[in-house]
Design goal:
Elements (H helix, E strand, L loop, with lengths): L1 E5 L5 E7 L11 E2 L2 E2 L1 E3 L2 E7 L1 H10 L1 H4 L7 H25 L4 H7 L3 H17 L4 H5 L9 H7 L3 H29 L4 H9 L1 H18 L1
Antiparallel strand pairs: 1-2, 2-6, 3-4, 5-6
Length: about 220
């Protein structure tokens, strides 16, 4: 059997094999785990181009330029710690001294949201791959599906970007709860605390507290 192969820089490698001896079971044969399809004595098979995928990741600016000199895992862990530590002072002041002028001035600042937004954009760029959109909208109706989302969040960089996203949204929700409490003269410390890790429950807690306060008055 003589063989010749050609590889193209695409998502697949195509191989063409010339069979010089009779082969009756070509259609039922497999090579590299792929079904053989052929006419007469020529067989055509395709298999994933693993070399191309590996070269893409190594040559991609996401992995080469932005992670150069520092492991991506280290960047993700550093961003996770930095983002978490950055929002804690705002929650602390809203809980410990909600009516203090320093707290009002600190909470009114847009700096934390700008900083978290920039950090999120940076991590999102690092975690972005050609398959990101496909995993986000995996169904035929262009809707997210749980298996695709689970696969997308299987890397530390993507998890770090999602954590920064949650920190920014949770802090914004906590600030809205805090401001509403000041305006309506409602206790918000428990709700603000819940917003730190369980934001939907914190928002729900605030609405329940608000309704009970009004009913009592």
């Amino acid at each position: 059997m003589a063989s010749s192969s050609s590889a193209f820089f695409s998502s697949q490698i195509s191989l063409s094999l010339r069979v010089d001896s009779p082969c009756r079971n070509i259609k039922n044969s497999k090579l590299f785990g792929q079904q053989l399809v052929g006419k007469s004595r020529t067989i055509f098979i395709t298999r994933p181009n693993l070399v191309k995928d590996s070269l893409f990741r190594k040559s991609s600016p996401v992995y080469a330029s932005f992670c150069a000199g520092m492991p991506c895992s280290q960047i993700a862990n550093g961003a996770f710690t930095l983002g978490t530590a950055a929002v804690l002072p705002f929650y602390t002041f809203m809980v410990v001294a909600p009516k203090a002028e320093l707290t009002k001035k600190l909470v009114s600042s847009s700096v934390p949201y700008m900083a978290l937004g920039l950090l999120y954009a940076y991590l999102l760029y690092l975690s972005w791959t050609p398959d990101t959109m496909r995993l986000m909208f995996a169904s035929k109706y262009w809707l997210p599906e749980l298996p695709g989302i689970a696969k997308m969040f299987s890397t530390e960089m993507t998890l770090a970007s999602a954590w920064i996203h949650l920190l920014a949204v949770d802090l914004f929700a906590a600030r809205q709860v805090y401001y509403d409490g000041l305006q309506e003269n409602i206790e918000t410390r428990h709700s603000v605390t819940l917003c730190l890790l369980f934001c939907p429950i914190g928002v729900l807690s605030h609405f329940i507290t608000k309704a009970l306060t009004r009913a009592r008055d």
